[in-house]
Amino acid sequence: MRKWLAGLAALGMAAVGILPAQAAEPDSPKVIRVGATQAMDSMNPFLAVRLVSSSIHRWMYGFLTVPDSKTLQPSPDLAESWTTSPDGLTWTFKIRQAKWSDGQPVTAEDAAWTFTKMMTDDGAKTANGPAVENFASVTANGQELTIKLKAPQASMLDNPVPIMPKHVWEKVGDIAKYDADDYPAVTSGPYIAVEHKKDQYVKLKANPDYWRGRPKIDELQMIFYDNPAAAVVGLKKGDIDLIGRLAPPDFEALKGTDTIVQWNTEGRRSTYLQINHGATTSDNKPIGDGHPALKDPRVRQALHTAIDKQKLVDEVQNGLARPADGSIVPPMYKDFFWEATGAEKVSFDLAKANKILDDAGYKKGADGIRAMPDGSRKLQFRFSIHTDTPIEDKLAEYLTGWFKELGITLTTKRLDSSKFTEETGTTALFDIAISGWSVNPDPEEVLATHLCSRRPTASGEGGGTESFYCDPQFEQLYAQQQKELDRGKRAEVIKKMEQRLYTDAPVIALYYPNNLEGYRSDRIASVTSIPEDKGMLYGGSGYWPFYTLEAVSTNGESDEGSNTGVIVGVVAAVVVLAAAGLFVARRKRGVADERE
């Protein structure tokens, strides 16, 4: 058996074109290896949209502000202070004295160039375009950055755009075609990217000139696995030192290993159903082939009433989640979280759900399947999920059973990630789909995905919609919260937006998954979560955990240095996939990791 595995490992090495590393010297650098089941889509921060990409870019670049490690509220980063005019239309930021990793000073001109590029270049808008939609102008004077807005914007201090070095990036011709694969990268954050192999790894070195001080490790590697099972094997074997964003079965597979710490905390994701309630383009033209019955809010209400969310938590999420009796903002954000109570709360009740449909005129036929009131179509819906996602398959089984009790047929439709994104976000060729979002400390962006303006154009471009929603009441509330600079008052408006999504049901929140991670205590001496009190590691919304990482001193016994961690990680993936007969080059963009 050992000979077989050794031969397979050697085959894996040959397949990816790498050779074993030499034995480590006693003074080997301190290296921490992080496993991920999603690969970088781009090293270019203007283009990268995957969660893993935004995480790595947080480690590399500075922002105007970052979430405070204790409160998650905006705190100074490259902007050490700021002021705003009484009317809320002019923001002035003082950029701190800091250096780029090539020794050049960081100035307000770098920030002004970054934002202006996004305002004027469509390619540069790909990742974070909405963040500058409300900017009228951006100017710089020494270390002073001035941003003038078209309208007041309460979320100004939660801007998600990394500041780029003007002297490097102004030389780029076409941003939309630039891979940013010149190494070492020029950065201002805790780490500097020094190497990247597509779909395999990214290697980062500690930035000795980082303004907060050099990180406590020498090198941080992000190693990409093709599936969670391979990553879990890698963690158990010691090929990687930390992995996050685990599904419950993979998390529970870590039990019984003394050297692995299981990290189970409240998460920042919500999982929900996206309903095609009559999709339209941004110019209000019908699009897609959604079932007409889903345009009726009574049908959506009946579907909601027929879902036993506690059972989904217990049996689909293995108890490692919280039922969503609210909207899409998870409960970890206490200021903004809204939850239904009393008569407004939708509780599991199949008899009530059937009565809603009976009263609305959707009669059952001889076959037990309901039809439209005019008899034109039966209530037969498609449920779009991702391929190779056991949890989504299991979810589909429960929904199919409950909806059958209503006289509704649900057929599972499995799509690869690219097709899933296209059909549920652009062409609207779906009825009901699984969806989810990793919500930032300020929830404005996730709420903005339900605005009229986020619908795609007639040609299928742009948008960024999460539901094809276009509701005047929701739009009015969004504009109101945007102008409200008092945090408490703004939170109340945001809760009304969540309430509107809950009652009108263009999406139906199912549960808030726990943040499930694991790391090796024989490799990681300490790590500080964000927030610091029972927060997240890899799954968090800031760089703090990876800046505070400390490695266990091994006297050269297991710190393999720059290459070995990458090699063993890739080989582990090859071994597991080959054993399963699944060694194919494939990038997955599952909903669980896709969005932020």
TrEMBL record:
* Pfam families tied to this protein: SBP_bac_5
Which residues, if any, are the signal sequence? 1-23
The record's Gene Ontology cellular component field reads: ATP-binding cassette (ABC) transporter complex; cell envelope; periplasmic space
Which GO molecular function annotation, any one, does this entry have?
Answer: peptide transmembrane transporter activity
Q: By its UniProt entry, which SUPFAM superfamilies does this protein fall under?
A: Periplasmic binding protein-like II (SSF53850)
A biological process (GO) of this protein is: peptide transport
Annotated Solute-binding protein family domain residues = 74-451
UniProt KW keywords: Membrane, Signal, Transmembrane, Transmembrane helix, Transport
Name used for this protein in its record: Peptide/nickel transport system substrate-binding protein
| Alphabetical list of PANTHER family matching this protein | PERIPLASMIC BINDING COMPONENT OF ABC TRANSPORTER, PERIPLASMIC OLIGOPEPTIDE-BINDING PROTEIN-RELATED
Q: Acetylation as a keyword? A: no
Is Metal-binding found in the keyword set?
A: no
Q: What is the lineage of its organism?
A: Bacteria, Bacillati, Actinomycetota, Actinomycetes, Propionibacteriales
Localization terms from the record: Cell envelope
Family named by the database record: Belongs to the bacterial solute-binding protein 5 family.
Which residue spans traverse the membrane? 565-585
